[in-house]
Amino acid sequence: MTQTSETAAVEEPPAGGRRPGRRRFHRAWSVAAVTFVTIIGAAAFRSVPGLFIDPLHAEFGWSRGTIGAAVSVNLALYGLTAPFAAALMDRYGIRRVVAAALTVIALGSGLTVWMTAAWQLLLCWGLLVGLGSGSMALAFAATVTNRWFTERRGLVTGILTAASASGQLIFLPVLSWIVTTHDWRPAAVTVALAALAVVPFVWLLLHDHPADVGEKPYGAEKFVPRPAPVPGAARRAVTVLSSVVRTGPFWLLAGTFAICGASTNGLIQTHFVPASHDHGMPVTTAASLLAVIGVFDVVGTIASGWFTDRYDARRLLAVYYALRGVSLLFLPLLMAPGVHPPMLFFIVFYGLDWVATVPPTLALCREHYGDDSPIVFGWVLAAHQVGAAVIAFAAGAARDAFGSYDVVWQASGALCAAAALMALVIRRRPRGEPAVAG
What we know:
about 450 residues; mainly alpha
């Protein structure tokens, strides 16, 4: 098990180090800023799936279910890679893993411009981009937060989670304009270049551990030496999973987060643009509405991090899921060729709620699983992405079968109501009870 500030704190820095003095600006914030920019650069790929469904259908004649299957592979690997990536960061360092992940994303996105068959979409967009993006998943943010901060973790988690929404805000209008004005291929190249552009920042500025620069974690009372590399990354990830699957909180957190993924990445992010287009809304307008979701996602996620530092994470999750479910039940009534106030209200609300679930979910992972919480959160995130993958495929298949998305919106609303109830029954860990360790 990896040492943390709770188990490895010592009075003096290691030989050759220095005792850090008090500063007005802590280096942890600059690391968080680099992490924020890195996630923004990698977020371009998250803007693409919904924009590519209609162009790929028109050019190659592939069904929406076939395209949705490639998106499903991408989303599933995004989640299933996360716990192993968290363990790899403990073994090889954050910088190396993230730089390699960005390169794989660029390779997968760039190769799509030459594809002519559906299996190539599965290989490039599903496998390569899925593996690369999984290593850039929220487990990356969790690892940075756990290493560099002992205070303000909820706030920092909210800020780093919001980075993905900021990337969507930046790239979605641009990519939708490129797809509409030119073609989907230049948009794919743009994603590849955006990922590559961040690699130098990661390599030069993203430090692996506070001890590397002679610092204490932000808010820590004592210096924390850099832990030794942890061998057997894959074995450790599986060992942690085998331990936590015997606990009730893990299944409740994984179940609620699976529904979170189904109702965000799998449904709205992938199918909102084509669903709106079915009702006569221009693609660029629908994409702009998704970008507005990104704007309010930043506000909602940072606010959720602030709330998580102060209020019961279980109740926060219950409120978030219940309100999301109600909004999805009303969405079929809001679809129209143009943008009207009720649709704007839905967009603003859904943005505020989009990944507001992340800070309280991560806080509950820390509460119950201690030092192993980044890897546990990686497995919870895997459930999130499996849920997203199932809905990404099922929604496309439902559109092919029924000619509309209405049944999918309603089913997702009901699932969110179930998630609200599940959140309320997650038990609180009694004070003094040790966290579960893998």
